[in-house]
């Protein structure tokens, strides 16, 4: 490799391609180099042609499925031999379950983009050319050989002369931009032939190649990578234990980037992690929440997830490296993905089919409802496990095309890392707290709609799911209970109207269970007859569970006072059974006690929606106790000869 062999006309074009990819302009620029294009075409055709011939033979013999694992490994070998462009193409395909079968996805996900390092003498020449001055003026010391090498460049450890800081210097492999340019032109021609001649392909491939090429050319611009690193740091450095190296702009240009040196161990180095006393699973959990934030919160994420780009420090920080390939998820897609997960949990497969339109994966003219039976056939078995037992890889494989262009593949990579340390690790259990926290605390209307979908079924509240959201959401790294007031305020707003009726019904059930227990206890104390008390106020199904929930909810709502606030006592009515007046008084006592312990709740109670909710609760309790009054009188009548004595024992005591 010699610097003199580099073409002087392409650097500016390559820089332009990283900002605005124009395949026609690129092809025109390379048309003056027919010899290089022809030579590379022969090499690519020979390598891929042999593989395609074997696949066609499998198709003819009916062994396409049985030979898929073997062919997948062969494809991985072919792409590795064709160099960086095709290695990265294979890595991109490994995240496309809509294009390739599972055997190919698994095999291509193992592709490595490492190449032997190139001579340091050339690397130092590139640094000097890019930085515009001798390297000893920039760095007071630098390792004679690279400390790491990959397909696009290699890294040296150095010390900045201006500050004395230790830094990492990444220098781009000379000629790599020209090689990628040739390969992208050839690859685009190849898939254009496929698009024109193979109608069985589910979607046009040329736009996919153009999107991939644009990202690959952007990765060649280290200035853009530095800006991406700073944006990533601004968005996610506040996440506990997440760290991003600082970019040193005085020593950064298009093909050289200098950043803060951070000592750490790659998460893929299991032996070194163990020797340092670091738990892989612990760092994976941090990475899971950060990945979910990338996708579902800010929408700015790694488009080329790679476990080798994650370092663990002895201080407990997870360090992110390599910001060459980044992408953005639009806000609509972020909310749609969360809705899609909720529809999955609810087994609402037809709603999942409609999500394809919201996510812009399908044209509205295409009917997606035939997909629903296939989703049901797959997920009815998968979802039989509890949340803590679900395997995330199975979820991703089942969802297929819905998740292909977002970084869920990075979550499967993290799950794989964790499984090396703990075979029983379940990523869903680790990821669910973040999802629960978002559903509880995010005021966005789209997420409030998903919240409704999750906790309501046939206009009835699934109390266990609401409890589970609170329990899991509290485990999230930045869970703030104060944000739950936003949920309470929303419930009492116009937008929360669909939730209020079901919530009122549940509150009636909880308060009724609490009152029933209290009345039964009072009757027992006054008559000394537990059987009579049980007959007069029969125990309802799941009453004990409802009463326990009521006490737990009370404790949660009054915990802000800094001390336990006892629940108000129920005033007994005629014969010990509370009537309309006692029920109304009891609700007023509850409201007053809650307002006193949590002043913000008083403001919520003053909202029209809260008054509507309280009125529904009062009316529901009155209906229940009217029915209980009838049963109470019947119970007295059924006492036979003991009716008079029982009634006398139940008479209110005179002062």
TrEMBL record:
InterPro entries xrefs: ABC1_dom (IPR004147), Kinase-like_dom_sf (IPR011009), Prot_kinase_dom (IPR000719), UbiB_kinase (IPR050154)
Record CDD domains: ABC1_ADCK3-like
Record key words, sorted: Kinase, Transferase
Keyword check for Transferase: yes
Domain Protein kinase: 141-461
Keyword Isomerase attributed: no
GO molecular function: ATP binding; protein kinase activity
UniProt cross-references to PROSITE patterns, sorted A to Z: PROTEIN_KINASE_DOM
SUPFAM superfamilies the record matches: Protein kinase-like (PK-like) (SSF56112)
Similarity annotation: Belongs to the protein kinase superfamily. ADCK protein kinase family.
Protein name according to UniProt: AarF domain-containing kinase chloroplastic
Organism: Micractinium conductrix
